[in-house]
Task: structure prediction
Amino acid sequence: MKKRVLAALLASVCVLAFTACGDNKEQESPKEEGSTSSAKTMEEAVSTKGMNPDEYVTIGEFEGMEIEVPTYSVSQEDIDKETQDEFDYYLQTSGASDYQVLDKDTVEDGDLVNIDYKGLKDGVAFDGGTAQGQHLLIGSGQFIDGFESGLIGHKVGEEVSLNLTFPEEYHSEELAGAAVVFEVKINSIDEEKPLELTDEAVANMGLNANTVDEFKASVKEFLDQQCEERNTSEKKAAVWEAVYKTCTVKEPPTVLVDSEVDRLKSVMSKYAEQYQVTEEDFISQYMGMTPEEYETKCRESAVTTSKEKLAAAAIAKKAGIELSDEQVQEEAKTEATNLGYENADVMFEQTGGIGPYYDYLLGQKVDDYLLEKVTVKEKAPVSVLTEAEEVSE
Result:
């Protein structure tokens, strides 16, 4: 889990700071919905714009290169599995169940009873003390002392009055230590059964689907989109990795690396704020590092990112790829909307300025250019549900 938090933190910088990390639009920034205007503003960050990348990068031969990349597909088996997994998750989080009435008439310890009840204090029903068709496992301790044991030995259809007292430490001041009467009707003794995937169950899930077929259609649409995005992103990532290996990149300028470090730390600070812990506690508890280890990791990541930005800038220069300020601003309007910012200016405030977005956008255009220059051979497709680790193996 800690490794996943670290990976998410570093990956989120690709969107927050617009690094040349490939297509990472699916990553979410750590800002909460609706908090675009109140989030902490980053300092103006340094970019490769205005730098001469040829001073740092020697580009290798990559035109005509052939690489193999994994591909993904969606099968009916994938759709069925994902549909069942989503339904199981719904059952787990909602507690929805099906029940079968047993041929049993006397309540015993361990029975699951269906009851109606009304709680009275001084003859008046109190808030939260009334329910109909409530299932209660006798012996679970879900209700106050005497309630569950008071039903043992009574029969289905019987109405029982329970004279009880709430504990002194009860959370409600009105009821703490109060004497009350619960009037209970025992409707049935039931057996809980797993809810099956039916049209009725789907209609009760609160989705835009009323039947199993409609539910599966929505799952298919989702998986198809995931498949398309994964095929595109992994193809771009594989091409970039292969081309980058042909380049020789010197140590990047300190000002660029320091800027990347500052933005990594800014992202971590936002996460710590969300989790309501100090930055030091976030580093140790959620990332499993000491402050010294985190500092080293930040700088290593910043150096790698800076080198990749410079390599992308060098390839762009060689290919004649240019970006005007007008182009950057126009693209930023769409990007800001996609990422949930109020406008491009707010996005720039939260991501270190227009410079990082320039590098990000330049990297995207370099990706498209490289796809035209490198021959990609697709491996036999695997399920879109396959984890990345399994694919690499």
